[in-house]
Design goal:
ten-stranded mixed β-sheet, 12 strands, globular
Length: about 425
């Protein structure tokens, strides 16, 4: 071998984009004893003692983005969508939808092999079990996932927030709204499959029942964080290690934040109403159909961050019900974005055609959309919690003002966003 080549480092595993903050991000999966009605299953993302550049050096600690059971679950969720098209999904975002409906019954066959052929084995650039930074007590965000998703499907959002100094707890909802989940019964794994709507099911009734269960899971997640912060003995059935003591006295629970995407947005609104410990709400493309008949009047500051394609009159009208205070209630749209921009998948699939088929292709670069989303989230949190805001954060938002539309509660938000998007 020529001397100038030297010894080459092995290639890094394929991975999601690195977070943008100064901290390398640690993570811990926790499942408390009991079934879905009383237990909690959550991934906690946190700022670690390591600087961000150590993320690459410690890639052996990165988890795989999704295990096979979840990959099959995602496909089964797509099959359920194609069998009975959901009210939340803009059909126009999905190319070849009629052809996909024909092959839907066999899509799950060999799907894990197809996934690896298309995408390889994808990892999350987060570090399992590393020490938490003790620079200060960290503010807390609880992030509720959308329909057909999981505790890890929004790793890019959760990791980025954690790298900037937040502890993000992402519960996996086990009410049948995830693509797949499970619990342990006497050490045996019990699958929780996605609940698809049968033709005779009333969509609102099913989703409203799930919404109430999801809100209880958010409250149990917050209860768990309080216990961890107090140093209580918490049993994690996923691990025999006594590692949860690392969280003792490291959480700032004076102002917990609730956040969520789509169905998780509706979950967050109901949780804000029912759990006053939550002090701020972040609703990302909230799908508010599941709470359309609920009488809610949360008092916390709330921001709605929406994609351009998820505009529909009834959903926007329901959001406007919460915009009674111009200072503490804001609604924003990101031009050229689609509903699926908030999840990790647009960073995993590289083919534009595949993205168009599964509704993930956006005119605005997915990286820019999510960077704007994350910075808008951080700016709203920091300003409402009276915390210092990095000037670079505001500079980034100012630089991309042409892509951000702010809607007022005095006018039709749908009309305002549509007119701005056409300029």
């Amino acid at each position: 071998m020529p001397f100038w080549r030297g010894a080459r480092e092995p290639p890094l595993p394929k991975h999601l984009p690195l977070p943008t903050g100064p901290y390398a991000v640690g993570f811990q999966d926790i499942m408390t004893p009991g079934g879905p009605e009383e237990g909690t299953f959550v991934r906690i993302y946190y700022p670690s003692t390591h600087p961000i550049n150590e993320t690459i050096n410690k890639h052996e600690l990165w988890p795989v983005w999704a295990e096979d059971d979840y990959l099959v679950g995602f496909v089964k969720f797509m099959q359920a969508m194609l069998e009975r098209w959901p009210s939340w999904a803009p059909r126009g975002e999905y190319m070849f939808i009629d052809q996909m409906e024909v092959i839907a019954p066999i899509m799950h066959i060999g799907c894990t092999q197809v996934w690896r052929f298309l995408n390889g084995i994808v990892h999350c650039p987060i570090l399992k079990g590393v020490p938490i930074s003790k620079d200060k007590r960290w503010p807390v965000i609880i992030f509720s996932h959308g329909l057909g998703c999981t505790r890890f499907a929004y790793s890019r959002i959760c990791t980025d927030l954690a790298s900037h100094g937040f502890i993000v707890a992402a519960p996996e909802h086990r009410d049948g709204s995830s693509c797949y989940s499970y619990y342990l019964d006497g050490g045996a794994k019990v699958d929780i499959l996605h609940k698809k709507l049968d033709k005779d099911d009333k969509e609102y009734s099913v989703r409203n029942d799930q919404l109430k269960l999801r809100s209880k899971e958010v409250t149990r997640t917050l209860d768990l964080l309080y216990s961890l912060n107090k140093g209580d003995k918490v049993r994690n059935v996923l691990s025999d290690e006594d590692s949860l003591i690392r969280f003792a006295d490291q959480l700032d629970l004076t102002t917990p934040v609730g956040a969520g995407h789509s169905f998780g947005g509706a979950t967050t609104l109901l949780s804000l109403e029912q759990d006053p410990r939550l002090k701020v709400g972040l609703i990302l493309d909230g799908w508010l159909f599941p709470l359309k008949d609920e009488k809610l009047a949360p008092t916390q500051p709330i921001v709605f961050i929406n994609t351009e394609s998820f505009l529909n009159r009834s959903n926007i009208s329901r959001m406007r019900d919460f915009l009674h205070d111009a200072e503490d209630r804001r609604m924003l749209f990101i031009k050229g974005s689609v509903h699926q921009n908030h999840i990790d998948a647009p960073f995993i699939f590289k083919s534009v055609t595949i993205k168009k088929i599964i509704g993930m292709h956006s005119e605005t670069d997915p990286m820019v959309v999510l960077e704007l989303n994350n910075k808008l989230m951080m700016h709203f949190i920091l300003s409402r919690l009276k915390m210092d805001i990095d000037p670079s954060l505001e500079s980034y938002l100012e630089h991309h003002e042409s892509v951000i539309i702010e809607a007022s509660h005095h006018e039709s938000a749908e009309q305002e966003a549509t007119e701005s998007a056409s300029r």
